[in-house]
Write a structure and sequence with these properties.
Blueprint (H helix, E strand, L loop, with lengths): L1 E6 L15 H12 L3 E6 L7 H9 L5 E5 L5 H14 L4 E5 L1 H5 L1 H7 L5 E3 L3 H13 L10 E5 L2 E4 L18 H4 L8 E3 L2 E2 L10 H6 L8 E2 L2 H15 L3 E4 L8 H17 L5 E7 L5 H9 L2 E9 L3 H6 L6 H14 L2 E9 L5 H13 L3 H6 L6 E2 L7 H8 L3 E4 L2 E4 L4 H30 L1
Parallel strand pairs: 1-2, 1-3, 3-4, 4-5, 8-11, 11-12, 12-13, 13-14, 14-15
Antiparallel strand pairs: 5-6, 6-7, 9-10, 16-17
The structure holds cobalamin.
Cobalamin (B12) binds next to helix 1, strand 3, strand 4, helix 4 and helix 6.
Length: 443
């Protein structure tokens, strides 16, 4: 069967340099090809295509089924693409997978009947089963993980167990890297899936919880990860990697031992790579970072989130402001570039806390990082279905739900006012900046 897999553009503006391929689709492409399907991957995000260009590219191709990946960052694009493709292709099957279809299944299927089905959760077991049945003309609607509409009602089948041994999966296909609109800055790679912590704004536990089987983080063997790096280098020439693990280091000595083994493997093969990681602030360790830097670590994205203890507690970070400060010091003194993740505004934020956070940013001397942050630094907490905070907000009367959208009101009306005005003024200055650019280009 001919399958087109699409990584859509995201709904936000993003610098070309920070774009990452859709690794999930790479995994899906590989397992489907292993089963003999003819699969094409279109990475519209990495090709910097806009909505119209993406629709045109999709419609220029012949396929039996279109599979689209989507997180919350792709919501509007997903709806736009699906509706436009359906208008022209009445009989083609359209499927969606990833975080948004998984955690927002009922709302998405109800809002967008043009989607024939979704596949929930991890796709490497479910997708081959469903697409295999479709190709063999068998009943596929009762296949595991499938969600669809039947007589105006949403049907959601149970998900299969999570992949027990990630090393049994074929390496993800790297079609996306080969079609990037610019030399791709990095290849995405995953050394493990899952996280030991339970941050109240994070949706990954709800995502993994849908499947049966072991939920604890699963890690790949270091040799397999480095074999994959070698194959990416041979196939694409890209020698910079972005680890997209939910939490790259992990807690305790055992986790460090795993990372050290991975580092030893990278070192022994003399690959000459660079790489970036994301982890928690309580996991950084001076010796470990020194060792990782020697084998190519350039950037650490630290989930600092806030300099206010009440916020860290609301986020269930199980961390203190002091630990955050210490982590910043460790990363800086290791000579690795620090990328602080910050969630300045949450539903319970007060004006005094905004001041406290600004003071923290000043004290930590984050101004340089703020200037070079790939996404806005002062962010408002984004709410996702399935996260712990949703329940709390419902109980406090602050939850706002409408179709696919889920959001919240600020408890303090003064904060609401400040945020609204800041957003309006930043939108205006953004428009002015763009108009100025256009004028310069025209003249
Ligand atoms: C790379 C990445 C991005 C990339 C783009 C990803 C892409 N598609 O191109 C970019 C930079 C755009 C991005 C942006 C954001 N991201 Co992000 N991102 C990630 C990250 C680190 C890795 C994704 C990945 O490659 N995973 C590995 C693959 C193997 O897993 P996967 O993609 O989920 O795919 C599997 C399944 O979902 C399924 N599947 C997926 N698609 C499909 C399609 C079909 C047809 C099928 C059958 C199956 C299937 O099968 C795959 C294999 O098992 C994840 C964290 C993570 N570890 O997953 C966060 C994550 C996805 N991002 C998240 C968030 C919150 C964001 C932001 C909104 C954060 C923010 N507030 O700034 C922003 C967007 C806004 C902005 N201003 O930029 C959340 C998801 C929230 C949600 N419910 O959507 C995550 C889970 C991080 C987290 N723990 O909170 N992100």
């Amino acid at each position: 069967m001919k399958i087109l897999l699409l990584n859509p553009p995201i709904d936000y503006k993003m610098d070309e340099a920070y774009r990452t391929e859709g690794l999930g689709l790479g995994y899906i492409a590989s397992v489907l090809r292993r089963d003999g399907h003819e699969v094409e991957v279109l990475d519209a995000h990495l090709r910097c295509l806009n909505l119209k260009q993406t629709i045109d590219e999709v419609l220029a191709r012949q396929f039996d089924c279109l599979g689209i990946t989507a997180s919350n960052a792709h919501k509007n694009m997903l709806l736009g693409i699906v509706r436009a493709v359906r208008k022209k292709r009445k009989d083609t099957l359209i499927a969606a997978g990833g975080y948004l279809p998984t955690l927002c299944a009922e709302q998405l299927l109800a809002a967008c009947p043009q989607i024939d089905f979704i596949i929930r959760g991890e796709g490497e077991i479910a997708a081959p089963e469903v697409f295999g049945r479709i190709a063999r003309n068998e009943e596929w609607r009762d296949a595991p993980a499938v969600g669809f509409m039947k007589g105006g009602k949403v049907v959601l089948n149970d998900c299969p167990p999570l992949v027990t041994d990630l090393d049994t999966l074929p390496f993800p296909a790297r079609d996306a890297l080969k079609q990037a609109a610019f030399p791709p800055e990095s290849a995405a790679i995953m050394s493990g899936r899952g996280c030991y912590n339970r941050c109240s704004f994070c949706c990954i536990h709800a995502f993994y919880a849908l499947s049966s089987g072991k939920k604890a983080p699963r890690y790949r063997k270091p040799e397999c990860v480095v074999d994959e790096m070698e194959s990416v280098i041979a196939e694409t020439g890209v020698k910079t990697f972005r680890f997209v693990d939910d939490d790259f280091i992990g807690p305790g000595e055992k986790s460090k031992e795993r990372v050290i083994k991975l580092a030893d493997e990278i070192k022994s093969r003399k690959l000459g790579i660079n790489f970036r990681i994301e982890c928690r602030a309580d996991e950084v360790d001076a010796d470990l970072l020194k060792m990782l830097k020697e084998i190519g670590l350039t950037d650490v994205f630290l989930g600092i989130e806030s300099g206010v203890q009440r916020q860290l507690d609301t986020y269930n970070k199980r961390i203190t402001v002091e630990q955050n400060k210490k982590a910043v010091e460790i990363v800086r003194s290791s000579g690795v570039r620090l990328r602080p993740g910050f969630i300045m505004l949450d539903p319970y934020t007060t004006i005094a806390e905004i001041q406290e956070n600004l003071q923290f940013i000043k004290e930590m001397d984050f101004l340089d990082e703020v200037k070079h942050a790939p996404a806005p630094f002062v962010t408002r907490l984004e709410l996702h279905r399935g996260v712990q905070l949703v329940e709390q907000l419902k109980n406090d009367g602050l939850l706002r739900e409408k179709g696919i959208d889920v959001d919240y009101a600020f408890k303090d009306p003064l904060v609401s006012l400040v945020v609204k005005n800041t957003m309006i003024s930043s939108a205006i200055s953004d428009m002015l900046r763009r108009a100025k650019k256009l004028l310069i280009r025209k003249s």
